[in-house]
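Researcher: Let's try something more involved. This one mixes different molecule types, so please make sure each is placed in the same coordinate frame as the others.
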Amino acid sequence: MTTTSTVPVKSEVQTRPRLDIARAREDFPILRRMIHGSPLVYLDSAATTQKPELVINTISEYYHQTNANVHRGLYALAAQATDKYEGARAKVAAFIGAAASEEIIFTRNTTESINLVAQAWGLKNLKTGDEILVSEMEHHSNLVPWFLLAQRTGAVVRHISILDDGTLDLSTWNERFTDRTRIVSLAHVSNVLGTINPITELAERVHRRGALLLVDGAQGVPHMAVDVSTLGADFVAFSAHKMLGPTGVGVLWGRRELLEAMDPFLGGGDMIRTVSMTGATWNDLPWKFEAGTPNIADVIGFGAAIDYLEATGMDQVRRHEVELTEYALDKMRALGELEIYGPADPQQRAGVISFNHRSIHPHDLSTYLDRKGVAIRAGHHCAQPLMERLGQNATARASFYLYNYRADIDTLIEALQSAGRFFGRR
Amino acid sequence: LDDGKNDIELDALYRDTVLDHFRSPRGQKALDRIDLKRDGYNEDVAVNCKGCVISVASASMLAELLPGKSREEVLRLAEAFKQMMHGHPPPPGLDIGDLDALEGVKNFPVRVKCALLAWMTLIEALQDTEESGRPEDKGTTTE
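Model: All components are placed in one shared frame. Result:
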């Protein structure tokens, strides 16, 4: 795809073939901020990541130089905007190894992508008594859309339990997966436990029985190389804002024949081929699923985020996070005051560590740490069934990305020690 | 460089009185039967609250303050505490017990809901009682 923009965004990544992860932090302006008088230590990337200058500038440049609606105008700006928007789609397709750009649907977020499948595939294909299989570690966004679908179709939602080490209890698979199971929907990586689920192995079991597999990739695609041509999933949902891109952009990847057989999700402009006063026919993929003016600027900004990740290399991102997770787990265990959830082996998990202090509630811990400049998450992390399984109302959670270093973990550990003294005083 | 101010505000949030209520909460009893009188005075108050220092301490202070108070007095107290969380001092002469130790919460806006959790639950229960004669059994959480 060529672009004729007069002021192309000068992409640093074009001149630097491989970004040095040790210097990534310099590319994120927000990480130079002070919070309550201390340098910001941002440990909540599982909620949303910070954005590199490249992404911020790309969005700003778009509004300065290229803004126009896509897929319609017959003038230069509209053509340039369309090229950039569709160019970002091609980048996403290449990033995840999709067979074609047509398989990439832009939505608002992972949640909307899952709802799209639940409605557009589910309403058409599920009948009373059919079964949807999820797991106990799912985010609410991979549970509630299926509950809604079950209510409307009479289908039933069943689940795979988890073991104490935070992995799926696959010994229950044969009992929970039945002849009525039509779709299995699983997180690639748990947003609470960090557990990496064995998607490819499970995909084989699912397909052998003629069901479909949706992968909630919100915590997977941003943190490790994901290739949909070998993953084994039929649908993958993920969000731009958890991988250096802006909020307001999600992706649904699906196998072309499945997407083609599905009815539209939302109706309106852009998704039609013809409309008369008696009905309408649908546009081709991917636009069939993109009703109305899309989030053009942020999709283009997401394209820049992908450039940045490609230039860094997802293998390097993953290595960096495993090393950081191992370092953090060792230091956190050594404190002796924390209960740490999820798999013990850093190779089996992503850079997400949920924990509880033996005597400090996560809300109090988070308030205290914030005053030391350390941003962590506290709460149920939109995973109430998992909290119940863990026997907790809430947990604290520290999560990492390519711009975090050992020094951030050291600051976290010091702040945790100081919190222990503060709340333990008599 | 701001650390002095942070420590002062953290100390003001987690005062010794507050930590004491958190460690030994008053009125912790099972809530298997909820009975809120329409007119008369509360004799016994049971609170069942699990959570952070602020929410547990506030519920404990509630349990300490309520016995012997009428419905109107309880509502007046709840309103005064709500106002306090938004930076307005309680009306002079109103006995707010240990609640003044929670004044520091106003510097932590995201924690105001923790301080108000037990009180909002109580107000809802009183409203339900007025409407239907008995409170609805519903768990309340800050999230």
